[in-house]
């Protein structure tokens, strides 16, 4: 289980945006829920609208993910012309469980690490 970060509810979940060649990696942290979904949606949609070759969402520091957060991830993916360009990386135990329970792990590319996600074929 991840250690609590002490982040305020509704805090910006986007910790960092990294650009690597024609890929974008978005590092998220804290809770992805109803409180910060609008902020998360705005950032991810804007990045997806750039149509990068890859958009990798690093979930390694995410402590909680609810259905609203899952919906934002799906929405960002649908904005990409090549939906295979979207992938998730490094989900912790609780985040991975939310992906499994929702069945989204069967529809989204989920990788153990950001480097694995960046190296994966786009299919």
Low-confidence stretches: 1-5
Gross morphology is globular
Distance between the termini: 32 Å
Indicate the mean pLDDT. 92
Class of secondary structure makeup: alpha/beta
Q: Within the largest sheet, what's the order of strands?
A: 1-2-3-4-5
Number of DSSP E strands: 5
Regarding CATH, which class?
Alpha Beta
For this entry, give a set of tags:
single chain; 123 residues; alpha/beta; Transcription Regulator spoIIAA; five-stranded mixed β-sheet; 33% helix
Structure description:
Helix 1 runs parallel beside helix 2 (67-78). Strand 4 (86-89), helix 3 (93-102) and strand 5 (109-111) form a beta-alpha-beta unit. The termini are far apart. The protein is built from four helices and five strands; from the N terminus they run E-E-H-E-H-E-H-E-H. The chain has one domain (14-117): STAS domain (Transcription Regulator spoIIAA, 2-Layer Sandwich), CATH 3.30.750. The chain has a five-stranded mixed β-sheet with strand order 1-2-3-4-5. By secondary structure, the chain is of the alpha/beta class.
């Amino acid at each position: 289980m991840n250690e609590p970060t002490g982040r305020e509810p509704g805090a910006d979940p986007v910790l960092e945006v990294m650009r690597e060649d024609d890929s974008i990696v978005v590092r998220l942290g804290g809770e992805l829920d109803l409180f910060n979904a609008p902020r998360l949606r705005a950032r991810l949609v804007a990045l997806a609208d750039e149509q990068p070759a890859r958009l990798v969402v690093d979930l390694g520091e995410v402590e909680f993910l609810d259905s609203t957060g899952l919906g934002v991830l799906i929405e960002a993916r649908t904005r990409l012309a090549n939906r295979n360009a979207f992938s998730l990386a490094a989900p912790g135990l609780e985040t991975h469980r939310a992906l499994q329970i929702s069945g989204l792990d069967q529809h989204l590319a989920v990788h153990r690490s950001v480097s694995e996600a960046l190296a994966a074929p786009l299919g």
